[in-house]
Amino acid sequence: MAKILFVPTNSREITQFGLIKPELEAMKHEITAIALDRGRALDKSREPLEALLQEKGFSYRPINDYRTYSLLNIISQENPDIIVTDWSGFTPNALIYAANYSGIPCLQINDGITSDYFAVKKIPSLGQSFYRLVRRAFRLLFFKANPRPLLYLTVTLASICRPWQFVRKMTAEMLKSTYPISSYTEGLNIAVISPFARNAHISMGAP
Question: pTM here?
């Protein structure tokens, strides 16, 4: 029996993983989900991802309940055999880095990519990236953006990297966050459903 830690970044992933959940549970695998913080501090109702996790019958825990910004601590608490997540966003990327450091495999299940995103990626210039980062900083300062994802990434990388590695990875992640389409995070394994999807991911930098 394996323990699977499922950390979805959107509702599509929950619906998709829900299709294979009964088979995994029939094989006695334990599935635990983490509901990411969606940044609606003023909204007292359930977050959309939490509502869908509940609807699909997942046993889940909101990430805020762990009371830590280190994803390494969360992995240590859950002690999974494998993590299923995506590469989109600071929090999932922090999770992937922490999992790699802990020797736990990470998997993204491709859900049917239908276009080669590299053709529309158009990596911005350094000037454009700098402008987008400054704009994001002002949104954080004026409480118009959720600071938690950046905190998860910063604290997690600081706990697993040497100072020079920390600066390099943080710089790379900040630049990647300005791209119109998410970029591959080292250490993530991707299961694809077709040669087209495989080639599309390769064009986006996935090994």
Answer: 0.87
